[in-house]
């Protein structure tokens, strides 16, 4: 890969990470009465679109080895989940993206080496799972 292509890939990745975090902050700061009707269609769906786009090269999905991207998605899942829990009427809310997000978190945990606890991915993914309830 040429240095110019490498530069654009890095810029593209940073842009996707920034947008993922921006959408989760929208969930955190949204009025509680307006969050639940929009959290799936307008927030979570777009977070996942940016994550999946970050994991594609020429339209082909590749294994995500980017630690920053993983941690960004984990943080976003945690923030969105906590915002849902704090929203009015959350007890009866069925979060349709729950299984998909749980799958990503479990994949991140499985990808971590079993002999090392140095990476923050395992712990933060477990905390995100806790908030996904």
UniProtKB/TrEMBL annotation:
Domain MROH2B-like HEAT-repeats intervals: 7-132
Superkingdom of the organism of origin: Eukaryota
TM segment ranges: none
InterPro entries, alphabetized: HEAT_MROH2B-like (IPR055408), Maestro_heat-like_prot (IPR045206)
Single GO cellular component term: cytoplasm
Pfam families in UniProt: HEAT_Maestro_2 (PF23210)
Name of protein: Maestro heat-like repeat-containing protein family member 2B
Source organism: Alligator sinensis (Chinese alligator)
Species lineage: Eukaryota, Metazoa, Chordata, Craniata, Vertebrata
């Amino acid at each position: 890969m040429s240095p110019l292509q490498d530069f654009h890939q890095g810029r593209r990745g940073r842009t996707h990470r920034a947008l993922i975090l921006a959408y989760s902050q929208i969930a955190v700061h949204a009025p509680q009465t307006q969050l639940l009707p929009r959290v799936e269609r307008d927030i979570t769906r777009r977070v996942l679109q940016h994550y999946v786009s970050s994991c594609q090269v020429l339209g082909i999905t590749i294994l995500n080895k980017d630690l920053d991207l993983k941690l960004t998605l984990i943080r976003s899942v945690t923030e969105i989940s906590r915002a849902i829990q704090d929203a009015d009427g959350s007890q009866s809310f069925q979060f349709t993206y729950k299984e998909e997000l749980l799958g990503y978190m479990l994949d991140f945990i499985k990808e971590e080496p079993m002999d090392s606890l140095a990476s923050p991915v395992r712990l933060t993914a477990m905390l995100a799972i806790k908030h996904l309830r």
